[in-house]
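Proteins fold. Shown next:

***
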Amino acid sequence: MSDPLRGLYAILIQGLNISIREKIDESKPITGWSGAFLMVKKQNGNGINLADSDPTFIGQFEDRFTAAKFHNSSWGENCLQINPKDKSSNLDDLEVTVSPDDYLIRVHACVPGSNENGEISNVHVDNGNANVNAQVNINKVSQCAKEILYPFLLDAINKQPSDDDLKVIINALLRTAEVSKEDFIKDLDHRLVDLKEACNNKINRADGTLKATEKIRELVKYM
């Protein structure tokens, strides 16, 4: 399953676009800044902070900035510290590769000689004398993940692996798709209702798909 897993992972990766501009005139990027702190944190689940959990996170900024992990005591956790490489390194149109989720973005930008302490929230940034607006757009694909998972597992069952091998495959796919076991079981329950109706109507191959789906559900339930 290594090649399909890589394909599934590529499908589920999304671009998180962060636009940071002057709030007074949002057509203008931030200029004259000396440094900034950026925290990107998942809202769902255990609220994972990407600076700690994703080894590729910092590297995604290094083509435009000098980037490193930094412990921000005001936030109580690590964030990304970025500094401009040159005068043209503005804070607009940042893009990070992430898994689908809702994200909390915190940004604190600084200009030379200004008070670097200010309000911290997910949409406003203190940038000396200027407020900054952070806009976050990300595609939600949790249902898409389930639609992909299901045919992958049906195909795996057709190859008749052992139950232990199937559990390894299921666990890997759930982790890659970031779909919880409980959510996937609910999804399978809905499919089983439809499949039982299809069997009653004697639709071709519905019986085999029903049995395979029941096996998937049973394995997931007791994992």
The chain has two domains: 15-137, 142-221. Confidence is low (pLDDT under 50) at residues 1-11, 115-141. The helical segments are 2-12, 50-53, 142-158, 163-177, 181-200, 206-221. The beta strands are 14-22, 35-42, 65-72, 77-84, 94-98, 103-110, 124-127, 130-137.
